[in-house]
Amino acid sequence: MSQTAHLLIDSQCALGEGPFWHPLRQQLFFFDINNHKLFAAEADGAVANIWSFDEIVAAAAVIDHDALALATETGLKRYDLITGETSLIVPIEADDAGTRTNDSRVHPSGGFWIGTMRKEEDEPGGAVYHYRAGKLTTIRTQAKIPNATCFSPDGRTAYWSDTPTKQILKCATDPATGLPIGEWSLFADVSDGRGYPDGAVVDSQGYLWNAKWGGKCVVRHAPNGSIDRVIEVPVSQVSCPAFGGPGLKTLFLTTAAKTLSADQLAAEKVAGGVFAIELDIAGQPEPLITL
Description:
Structural class: mainly beta
Shape: globular
Strand content: over 45%
Distance between the termini: 44 Å
Oligomer: single chain
Radius of gyration: 17 Å
């Protein structure tokens, strides 16, 4: 049976990314990285709020009802959604104007994995950091485009990809902190599949959903790495999935319009929108960050 996600929000993002279902507000949050914007939307797609920033912001962790920890190009920053007040939690590559944050996700322990990359995407100058309870730890270095960061429901396994390698890796993690405690190994080689591995999320059954940049789909991988199902998306650059809505059974998908040719944009008029599909599988609740 073929399933296709439908357009939910015609948000026209240059680079839609970082979606998550806010557990306290019961809203979908997502970013347009290139245009420095954060959106909040209801489950039915109605946009409730848009915030603008003066620097690149790629992802966020929930602190409480009114505050987020933003992964910005200069550091992790506390942001008040009501007042717009920003304060620094910890600097991250603040002295390197050539890098920015990218795919990031909160571990069930409250540890926040934060990826960085070169803005020009021309060399492996990115990294992955772990922040929890006031401490920033470097997990990986020399990454080109960090993506697919997500975790098993028991917090004992982390998944991650450096997108150009077309491989999704896994490693054991301490469920109490989210720090790696084992060596990285291959979870899935997707070099013979569609597109490149982009953002990912793990559902409540422990299966990994991976967005395929350039592949017009999201793929559900079983815990052994095999392909369980494929959801089609009517635009090519699918960037990241998130579960939300009633019962966490809606799969939301951000997409991007950047780098598409004029002919491609004419064919994909809703590129950069948010797509959705109702499933019979629930996701995991979004954990709060441990500051």
